[in-house]
Design goal:
139 residues, alpha+beta, 4-stranded antiparallel β-sheet, binds adenosine-5'-triphosphate, binds magnesium ion
């Protein structure tokens, strides 16, 4: 399955606004198969570990505060060229720059509250999927 999965989170802003169902449907309509899914909430420690690469960035504290502010939906998605295609499905990090029809264009309001996460490489997709799911939770 390696190279054919990506990892996504529906972030607290989109969950709180009731966009979960629409986003999951959008992803399925784009050809992705759900192979794992979980409704959960990140602790500060878990969020810090997940976003460790951004630890030195000026927005790190705000990012952790936001990502722990409410429940999220974590999921593993399968499709050919999963990682790169999903970046196009979600759109640019800053929703103001996200192409029309992308998930961030449709459901995000700001660069920090930007509705969804998507892995940026096959390597990180595998790491992030394993961070949230064990082998028995994946289909
Ligand atoms: P993600 O990793 O969530 O899919 P991304 O890969 O598009 O988003 P990254 O550069 O990995 O963007 O940044 C991770 C997250 O940190 C962003 O999704 C956003 O929530 C937040 N972030 C990034 N840049 C900024 C910024 N300049 N100001 C505030 N928050 C930011
Ligand atoms: Mg990223």
């Amino acid at each position: 399955m390696s190279g054919k999965i990506t990892f996504t989170m529906i972030k607290p802003d989109a969950v709180a606004k009731g966009h979960t169902g629409k986003i999951i449907d959008h992803v399925i309509q784009k050809g992705y198969k759900l192979v794992a899914m979980k409704y959960t909430r990140l602790s500060e420690e878990k969020a810090g570990e997940f976003y460790a690469i951004h630890r030195e960035r000026p927005f790190f504290k705000d990012l952790i505060a936001f990502m722990t502010s409410g429940p999220i939906v974590a999921a593993v998605l399968e499709k050919e060229n999963a990682v790169a295609d999903y970046r196009n499905v979600i759109g640019a990090t800053d929703p103001a720059k996200a192409e029309v029809g992308t998930i961030r264009n449709l459901y995000a309001k700001s660069i920090d509250a930007n509705a969804v996460h998507g892995s940026d490489s096959d390597e990180n997709a595998a790491i992030e999927a394993a961070f949230f799911f064990n082998g028995f939770e994946r289909f």
